[in-house]
User: Fold this.
Amino acid sequence: MSKKVRVRFAPSPTGGLHLGGVRTVLYNYLFARQHGGDFVLRIEDTDQARFVEGAEQYIMDCLKWCGLEPDESPEKGGPFAPYRQSERKHLYYEYAQKLIDSGHAYYAFDTTEEIEKMRNTYGNDDHKAQYDETTRGYMRNSISLPPDEVVKLLENGTPYVVRIKMPVNQTIRLTDMIRGEVTFDSSLVDDKVLLKADGMPTYHLAVVVDDYLMQITHAFRGEEWLPSAPVHVLLWEYLGWKEHMPLWAHLPLILKPDGNGKLSKRDGDRLGFPVFAMNWTDPKTGEITKGFREMGFMPQAFVNMLALLGWNPGVEKEIFTLDELIMAFSIERVHKGGAKFDFEKAKWFNNQYIHHADNETLAKLAMPYIEDGLKNTGINSRAYDSRLMTYDYLQRVVGLVKDRCTLLPDFWAQAHFFFVTPETIDVAAIKDKWNDQKQQFFSNWAAALEALPEWNEQAIEASCNEHALQAGLKKGDVMLPLRIMLVGGKYGPGVFIIADMIGKEETIKRIKAVHL
RNA sequence: GGCGUGUUGGUCAAUCGGUUAAGACGCCUCCCUUUCACGGAGGAAUGACGGGUUCGAUUCCCGUACAUGCUACCA
Assistant:
């Protein structure tokens, strides 16, 4: 009999949600769903100094946007509430005490200055000494001090922290689902602080206590945590919970596209792509960091792209729905090495999703960008509504231009001429081959169009062919100029469809407006 | 510095000892299209290095190099 699978994403609310964080969420989510388990969101807000207002809500909003919502969270509640570590503060002391009683942890009364001094005294500039077996004897703690003095210090209310007492010369083994067996020498790990002077636990204590209390069975986290894993393994053991320890999986890092190293917010700013899932506004500075959502990504595309960054199903398929990902995902196929983030590939995913989306869905997604464009060109979109911008019209438009769009804002760039007269006309594109004959053709044809009995793509094209022939011109001579007149540039769907869509009056107006 | 982890084209990556070392993104060429895309066809481009093990190593082992992470009363 196996326990019900329970996984958790445990971010600290200190700012924007990094793409690597979203991927961790995704792998948690996929794993939980695949095994019929629970996905828990636990907020690790034990560092009061780094707490950022609004970050928790922002994280939950990001998960909602991505469609990766937890089963239990501070917002939703659940059988293991509360899900905010600051609200669980009272729980941790008991376990710290238990560790002290069993001799696996001790009180330390050192000030930050004393510790700093020790690091320099017993170490050097590029290798500061650790608080461990070799140095703890020189410090003020319940191991080095006589018992009565410790009691006195405690009674006087001297600030203290609780540190784990790392054993000497012990090999600590950990079986990682991705990396296999990893070993550490306990002598090389320092006596990490478990309980801070303010009574809050550090990550090390909190993650173990909460994973135990919340009955977490599988723990996924970034590779940067691997070096502190031996501390956690020991804690599980010392607390007597070893058989309940979750299976670990340390996920590979997401690297910057150029050079090496972890992808940071700065790299995004520097290279011009987002790193956060959604726009993040720093409450202190007001500085806004762009997100994938605001950049014009569809959440499904974003998630799909992330899934394949560090994991590969072993088949050629690349486009997966969330349900398909749940079916296909396997932790064993997650890569060991970090992956460089490629924004071009990310855009390709979005392009694919736009390409395959139905027009109704796209019309909804494109709507805000079209409205925005109209607003910026000074046209009241409401007034325009009644004339041209019906939902039906929008759907036809997006269907016509979707192959040309990679990000959602492209819909305005690729379709503005369906709604407004082009502001700029690329006359340079036709100037060289322009002549009186062509000018004459267009003014004659514009007049003839007035009298065209039916207004549709075929009729307009036939009329154009006919009049070009009469004027002694080839069709190819007039196609590009016509496009420039209607669209403003060398792009867009077929010209006659455009003429059909924008209507007779507007078509004639645009033709007449251009003189070279 | 110490410790951990990693290393297949520019990038994402398949291969679980035997392949002409897949595929995708990007790039280039051509076709389709009297625009731009989409689509189609093709092309350039890869096993860090050195030792083993083996009939045979990209694949297993060891070393080297390089990269990266950690080394806080931050997570």
